[in-house]
Design goal:
single chain, 161 residues, alpha/beta, Helix Hairpins, Chitinase A, domain 3, 2 domains, 5-stranded mixed beta sheet, two-stranded parallel ribbon, 7 strands, 25% strand
Length: 161
């Protein structure tokens, strides 16, 4: 059995909506296109037919991956978590670097980093996400990045839905 992974309610709903869209809209549409292309005769030289079959395989593969992912998630809703002053999965953490530049991150699952879900997300499995877990206002963390090590100070920990 695969290890459970964490995901926020909004991230889970976005992936579940993608699954529904692929299953109930995209796959039937592409299936109709393949049926029409197949009616045009010789499938060995039918570009539309071959392209449609390839699209169906890609959709089926994505559906399979999404189904497995959705089964192995533990959904955590930041809005219903007990309030704490420490940063854990789902928290929104504001950090300040050595120059005083503030940046806000929500600690989420790795599959929630899609820009469509909004900017400012960091995986709890990433070095910065790991470093922030359990920290509270005033704590500092050192994180190694490709550009060098940076020291960040936790300015604020919030719990939003």
């Amino acid at each position: 059995m695969a290890q459970k992974k964490y995901i926020t309610r909004s991230g889970f709903e976005a992936l579940r909506e993608e699954f529904r869209r692929l299953l109930h809209q995209e796959r039937p549409r592409v299936t109709r296109e393949v049926t029409v292309a197949a009616a045009h005769g010789d499938r060995s030289e039918n570009y539309e037919y071959k392209l449609g079959k390839r699209k169906l395989r890609e959709i089926d593969a994505r559906l399979h991956r999404l189904q497995k992912q959705l089964e192995n998630y533990e959904v955590i809703d930041p809005a219903t978590r007990p309030r704490t002053d420490r940063a854990f999965f789902g928290a929104t953490v504001t950090v300040e670097d050595e120059e005083g530049k503030a940046t806000k991150y929500q600690i989420v699952g790795g599959d929630e980093l899609d820009d469509a879900l909004g900017p400012g997300r960091i995986s709890y499995e990433a070095p910065l996400g790991k470093a922030l877990l359990g920290k509270q206002e005033g704590d500092t963390v050192r994180v190694r990045r490709p550009a060098g090590t940076v020291e960040l100070t936790v300015v604020k920990v919030e719990w939003k839905g």
